[in-house]
Design goal:
disordered C terminus, disordered N terminus, 8 helices, alpha+beta, 43 strands, 4-stranded mixed β-sheet, single chain
Length: about 800
């Protein structure tokens, strides 16, 4: 670093110190308050001038310092410092200890890092002077600011570039196009580092830019969009007010030339020719023509007009294609005129008054239409159809009206008429085929149908393919043939405390007739109600009438319904009348007149019920409810018993018996009650002495009674085999989730490994020892003699012989 540069930094720091010293002193007033809050004066005056201890204010440091040594910023000092080294200076706040350091002994502040004003323009710190030994503060902590001084180190930038603007063609010189703005991050309040000026680098022939504001303007007045529709400019921004050494930046500006309506429409041809048949329907297009316009957008929008020939032709504008569509406005007639010339004019919709002097913004062309001859169907007169009228009471065969039609061709062939029966399916009307006279075929009723629309067909007599149709509307004129009737509702209500003359109901009338002069109805009470003393009728004269009470004191218990016949007469002619009955109900109302009840019987009954009667009624209802509940409970109990018996029959009723019986005639060999009584089991009668021996098979009884050495052991071994098998089946049943959730009777076809009873066949009975005596078989007759020979004990002598 050059010596003069270091001297400059020291000089700036010293100037900053001098600056802060010039503003660092102030006077303050101290006011002491006692503990009670009252003001206490110190000495001869309550105000005492004291000198502030700090002699500094704010410091400045230049940005972008590139030296190797810390940059001196300034010095803080307190008047309590006598130079003995008893004071310790400290700083805190933004950048303290990192960016800025302080000499605790001298109070000198240095910057240790390179600062950038564009990143941070100033730093706020706090200074504190403390006693070096006790570290107690000697003065209150004060705040100071270190400002970073700017240098020109940032070039102007167009933050919103590149730019796109627009200007209308043919704009005058100096017309504003748009504004560009460049931003400079340097300090605008210090020097000219942030003072920017603008200039055009490329495109200055057509556009200029204001040096100070950046507004781009036109430099010529003949910008034509049809020749060139956009321009590219390069705009430069230079700081230091454009002086040498300033930094600069540039951006691209695209300027679009917008269109104005400076070109009139033009037809490519001055004449167009088309041909059309005279049979073409109204609205049939003849042809299309188009005018061109060099402009764009809405400036090309145009409308077409018919300047000559508008009686038979019309022109419309196709908004999508901007074409003129010429069509027929009225039917063409070859016999009247064979060629038509139509003058079509094209006019711009949006004419700019600034360019009227450039010429007329319209153009014309001729459309020539040639009409070709065809055989035409008859023409009705009038062509739009006929409207006829007939009285409602006209007789059958009466004339309704006459339709006329003619053949437009030169030959003028005769015409025949008929009615399209799809429009008159009931055949109410007839038409004469030669004259076209329409007559009635049935009696009319205007209230059923006030209008009849029929279609009449006309054809050439010798060519029925040449046909035309015309709509005929027939209006049925009204005749007063329906009497007036009362409009619904036919009922009204009054309160028992109604006052005399009170309006209780307004009646109106409906009449199906529609007289041309309008309805007028008259109301009176029927002759049988002329002596009525309860109600009066008031004709309001606007086709309504009001019903008023004639007396007071109505009582619905005496009479709760009144029938009032009313006679209604219309104005005719002829006058017709009808009698309608209005039903008036007498009702009980509250104090505000709101109807509560109109039922006299219900009211009397409710009024006659005493508290005792209500209690008796409630008791009767309670008894009935109890009886119903008892009946339901008994039915459910009986149903439960039947279900329990059914369940016992299915699962628990296993009857044990082991008697063989004596045959078909033996009724004493076994107890029948064991089968009839489901609950009387021998096993349940003796619990202490073990199971009854009679319930076991005879071969098990023999083993028990015999008391042999191997009998009980063998029986126990056999039973253990069955018990193990049954226990295994029970475990399988318990583990099976599909079995029913109650005890069930399981049947297992398991005989064991061997049977002590041996074979039960009667063939081997003689070879076994049996305790039963079968000698009685010989007494059963000759049929059992052979069986008795097998079972009866034989004589050894006889067997030997």
């Amino acid at each position: 670093m050059a010596p003069w540069t270091a001297g400059a930094w020291t000089l700036l720091a010293a100037l900053g110190l001098l600056n802060c010293c010039s503003f660092g002193r102030c006077e303050t007033s101290r006011t002491s308050l006692n503990s009670g809050g009252s003001r206490q004066e110190q000495g001869p005056s309550s105000l005492e001038r004291v000198k502030r201890g700090w002699v500094w204010n704010q410091f400045f440091v230049v940005e972008e310092y590139t030296g190797t040594e810390p940059l001196y910023v300034g010095k803080i000092h307190t008047d309590s410092d006598e130079g003995e080294g008893n004071i310790k200076y400290t700083i805190s706040g933004e950048g303290a200890g990192s960016i800025f350091i302080i000499d605790e002994l001298t109070g000198d502040i240095h910057a240790t890092e390179r600062l950038d004003r564009e990143e941070k323009a100033f730093y706020t710190l706090r200074a504190q002077a403390r006693d070096r030994l006790s570290n107690d503060p000697l003065e209150p902590e004060s705040e100071f600011v270190i400002k970073v001084q700017d240098i020109n180190d940032s070039e102007p930038k167009f933050l919103e570039g590149p730019y796109i603007g627009s200007v209308a063609e043919l704009s005058p010189i100096g017309a504003s196009v748009m504004k560009v703005t460049a931003s400079d991050a340097d300090d605008p309040t210090y020097g000219s580092s942030a003072r920017v000026v603008y200039s055009v680098l490329d495109g200055e022939k057509f556009f200029t830019v204001d040096r100070n504001t950046g507004i781009i303007m036109t430099a010529v007045a003949d910008l034509d969009r049809e020749t060139q529709d956009r321009y590219e400019l390069v705009v430069k921004a230079t700081d230091m007010a454009g002086q040498m050494g300033g930094l600069s930046g540039s951006t691209t500006v695209t300027i679009v030339i917008t269109d104005v309506n400076d070109n009139p429409p033009r037809f490519p041809q001055k004449m167009y020719q088309f041909s059309l048949s005279e049979a073409a329907a109204v609205g049939t297009p003849v042809g299309r023509v188009i005018a061109t316009d060099a402009d764009m957008g809405e400036n090309t929008d145009m409308v077409y007009l018919v300047k000559d020939g508008g009686d038979l032709f019309k022109v419309t504008t196709d908004l999508e294609t901007q074409e003129a569509v010429v069509s027929i406005k009225k039917p063409l007639d070859f016999e009247s005129k064979r060629t038509h010339n139509v003058v079509v004019e094209a006019v711009n919709k949006h004419v700019d008054p600034r360019f009227v002097d450039l010429g007329s913004f319209r153009d014309q062309t001729i459309v020539r239409v040639s009409v070709s001859d065809v055989d035409e169907p008859p023409i009705f007169q009038p062509a739009e159809g006929a409207i006829m009228e007939v009285q409602e009471d006209a007789k059958v065969g009466a004339l309704v009206g006459i339709v006329t039609a003619r053949d437009p061709d030169v030959k003028n062939k005769p015409v025949r008429f008929s009615i399209d029966r799809t429009t008159d399916q009931e055949m109410i009307f007839h038409i004469d085929p030669d004259s076209g006279a329409i007559t009635l075929g049935k009696i009319l009723d205007r209230e059923t149908a006030g209008w009849h629309n029929i279609t009449v067909k006309a054809v050439e007599a010798d060519n029925h393919t040449m046909a035309s149709h015309s709509a005929v509307s027939i209006r049925i004129l009204d005749v007063n043939d329906n009497p007036p009737e009362l409009a619904t509702p036919y009922e009204a209500s009054i309160c028992e405390d109604a006052k005399p003359g009170q309006l209780i109901h307004t009646i109106s009338v409906v009449d199906r007739d529609e007289p041309q002069s309008g309805h007028r109805f008259y109301f009176t009470l029927a002759p049988e109600a002329s002596s009525n003393r309860h109600f009066t009728l008031w004709d309001v004269k606007d086709n309504t009438a009001g019903i008023r009470t004639q007396r007071s004191g109505f009582n619905r218990h005496e009479q709760n319904v009144y029938l009032l016949p009313i006679l209604v007469v219309d104005s005719g002619p002829p006058s017709l009348s009808s009698t309608g009955t209005l039903t008036i109900h007498v009702c009980g109302c509250d104090t505000e007149g709101a109807i509560q009840s109109c039922n006299a019987t219900a009211y009397v009954m409710s009024a006659a019920l005493s508290p005792g009667a209500l209690i008796a009624l409630l008791v009767c209802m309670l008894i009935l409810i109890v009886l119903v509940l008892l009946i339901l409970t008994l039915k459910r109990h009986r149903k439960g018993q039947r279900m329990a018996e059914d369940e016992e029959d299915m699962r628990d009723n296993v009857i044990k018996y082991n008697d063989e019986g004596g045959g078909e005639q033996d009724t004493q060999a076994y107890d029948m009650s064991a089968l009839r009584n489901l609950y009387d089991f021998p096993e349940a009668k003796s619990c202490d002495s073990g199971p009854d021996i009679r319930s076991l098979p005879q071969w098990i009884q023999a083993n028990r009674v015999g008391g042999g050495a191997e009998g009980p052991a063998a029986a126990a071994a056999d039973f253990s085999l069955f018990k193990g098998y049954i226990r295994k089946k029970v475990e399988q049943a318990d583990a099976d989730l599909s079995v029913p959730p109650y005890d069930s009777f399981q049947t297992y076809a398991f005989e064991g490994t061997s049977s002590p009873a041996l074979s039960l066949s009667s063939i081997h009975t003689l070879s076994t020892t049996s305790e039963q005596d079968f000698s009685y078989l010989s007494d059963w007759g000759p049929r059992f003699r052979q069986l008795a020979g097998y079972y009866a004990p034989g004589n050894p002598d006889e067997e030997g012989s």
